[in-house]
Amino acid sequence: MTQQYENQLIARIANYTQAMRKLGGRRFIFVGLPPVGCLPIVRTLLGTGPDTCHGDMNQLAASFNKRLAELVRLLKNETDTRATLIDVYTVVATATADPSRFGMADRDNKGMLWNRGN
């Protein structure tokens, strides 16, 4: 995701949100991107392996999430508008870095696609 594409996505989200506000919408929930570089499909296709995330992709997702958080902060300043951002990135990154924290003690059997023996 280039900076230009990121700008386009944020602008579209802002425009759609303003359109919904004009129609009477006042409560919005936004969901951020996960650490895309840690997704099993990305690890498999890019060959980083089951225990290594693709850092560049994660940086792009984090950058987008930062911009989305800024948009949500701006929306919260609008009269009678409630906006929430769900931070998926932190939850997934934490679970990936420390699976035992989520009850997954055996790192060799995390239930990921490449560990199912298929």
From TrEMBL:
List, in alphabetical order, the Gene Ontology terms for molecular function in this entry.
Answer: hydrolase activity, acting on ester bonds
InterPro entries in the record: GDSL, GDSL_lipolytic_enzyme, SGNH_hydro_sf
Q: Which residues form a coiled coil?
A: none
Superkingdom of origin? Eukaryota
Family to which the UniProt record says this protein belongs: Belongs to the 'GDSL' lipolytic enzyme family.
What is the protein's given name? Answer: GDSL esterase/lipase
- Natural source organism: Paspalum notatum var. saurae
Recall the taxonomic lineage recorded for the source organism: Eukaryota, Viridiplantae, Streptophyta, Embryophyta, Tracheophyta
